[in-house]
Specification:
The protein is an alpha/beta fold. The chain has helices at residues 4-13, 17-20, 39-62, 72-78, 118-128, 134-142, 146-155, 166-170, 173-179, 217-226, 234-238, 252-263, 284-290, 315-322, 324-331, 346-369, 379-388, 406-412; strands at 23-26, 68-71, 86-87, 90-91, 101-104, 110-113, 160-162, 185-190, 209-212, 267-270, 295-300, 372-378, 413-418, 421-426, 431-432.
Length: 447
């Protein structure tokens, strides 16, 4: 039986259901971790789609198909891979800032403050008029109308929002705007001759990717492309297979350095808010002139359309706005009352894998028909896709384990020797029969 989530991805690639039968998905059961959302099915689906596209590219290069396999439990573990990092046998802390969280506001509503980045923390604390003290923050939020606080945080260039139910989000104008979009857009933005894949012994050998993204979703795309990144620990999770450098795009010299890299690149991956890079001459259309044949991957929080298109956002912000935390809290209450985040970073990692899927399809189209291509998606579009898959019944979630077994984690993990120590982390999830995925380089410190 074909995975239902994978079935929804077939039209994006122009595949029939016969193509989906070429991938083996095991453990395709969504009662894996304590959440009603179908993280196992969707995680397995996007990785299967990546594998099938890699197989297509390998066939273009070598003339041979590959068998593709994905284990849904392992795929689900990959949606929280930052949890399993160890540096020199010691856990790598993934703790959030103590102020970050959900707080009760007026009239029984709840507000979420995203405070992991210093500028977002300053925006929230400045708007509330308090110091970085959790009791002061809680008292201050309790005096606010949740919707008014959301607007104040946004106006201060912060991130967060009012907790909505799924029904409330469905009636919201931004949700309507997102509903008008496909899950991924792959748009031809310029003409150029077809480009054969560079010579090499791996599906993506010689393909150069410039990754200008941060945190999880965009860097996960780059990490995925690299095996065929930036809050402290996260580059350890998403930096495999990459080199890292720092450029200040406000400086003309650094901007020109980036343009030089683009001229010799194949993929340009960016996660700035819509329109931000256009002011620096780095719009998709501009780069298609600088480097005909470029694949420009563009990631945003709430998409490029609708009243919230320019808002900052992260996985947790999308969960908050779209009703996911509200529903999660109903079924799996936390130690404190109120909305809860699901036990993975599903929207982040799923978006990263979907972004890689779109880039791979664009590279295939470039090889066959030529052209420059824009791959565009958002966290909110992924969130909608996840929610639209339906929910696991409450009965199926009885006694579901909150963690994978130690033997599973041992089997899925590997070690890399990095410039800062011995890193233990989850290995590639995708299985390919002829070219098993691996990272040619260990993760490196930023810069």
């Amino acid at each position: 039986m074909i995975n239902d989530a994978l079935r929804t991805l077939l039209p994006i690639a122009g595949w029939t259901e016969d193509r989906a039968r070429a991938v083996e998905i095991t453990g395709d059961d969504d009662s894996i971790l304590p959440t009603p959302f179908r993280i196992g099915q969707t995680g397995a689906a996007v990785l299967a789609a990546v594998g099938l596209t890699v197989s297509d590219l390998w066939k273009l290069r070598a003339g041979r198909d590959q068998e593709v396999a994905v284990d849904a439990r392992q795929a689900t573990a990959s949606l929280r891979s930052g949890t399993y990092l160890q540096m020199d046998n010691a856990p790598v802390s993934s703790a959030r800032n103590t102020i970050m969280g959900v707080y009760p506001a007026k009239n029984g509503r709840w507000s979420y403050l995203h405070c992991n980045f210093p500028n977002h923390r300053e925006a929230a604390l400045g708007g509330l008029g308090v110091s970085e003290d959790i009791d002061e923050v809680r008292k201050a939020v309790a005096g606010w109308d949740a919707l008014e606080l959301e607007e104040a945080i946004v106006a201060a260039n912060g991130a967060g929002g009012m907790v909505r139910t799924m029904d409330e989000w469905a009636r919201h104008s931004q949700a309507a705007a997102i509903a008008s979009l496909p899950l991924i857009e792959i748009v031809k933005i310029g003409d150029s001759p077809p480009e054969l894949l560079p010579e090499g012994d791996r599906p993506l050998s010689g393909v150069r990717v410039l990754d200008l993204t941060r945190v999880l979703a965009g860097p996960t795309c780059g990490r995925t492309l690299a095996h065929l990144r930036n809050i402290g620990y996260q580059e350890y999770d998403t930096g495999h297979g990459k080199l890292s450098a720092q450029l200040d795009l406000r400086e003309p010299r650094d901007l020109e350095t980036l343009r030089g890299l683009i001229r010799y690149g194949d993929v340009f991956s960016q996660g700035y808010r819509p329109g931000t890079l256009a002011a620096r001459g780095l719009s998709p259309e501009a780069l298609a002139q600088v480097r005909p044949g470029i694949v420009y991957a563009s990631l945003s929080a709430f998409s490029h359309v609708g009243p919230w298109a320019s808002r900052r956002g992260f996985d947790t912000v999308i969960q908050t706005a779209s009703g996911i935390t509200s529903r999660q809290g109903e079924l799996f209450p936390g130690e404190a009352p109120g909305p809860q985040f699901y036990p993975v970073s599903a929207i982040d990692y799923l978006t990263g894998y979907l972004m890689a899927f779109g880039v791979l399809l664009a590279l295939k189209r470039r090889a066959l028909e030529g052209g420059s291509w824009l791959v565009r998606l958002s966290l909110a579009q992924t969130g909608r896709w996840l929610v639209d898959r339906g929910q696991v019944s409450v009965a199926e979630l009885d006694d579901v384990a909150p963690e994978f077994t130690s033997s599973e984690l041992e089997r899925w993990s590997m070690e890399s020797h990095t410039p800062v120590g011995k890193l233990r982390h989850l290995g590639p999830t995708l299985c390919l029969s002829e070219m098993p995925p691996h990272w040619a380089r260990p993760t490196v410190p930023l810069g």
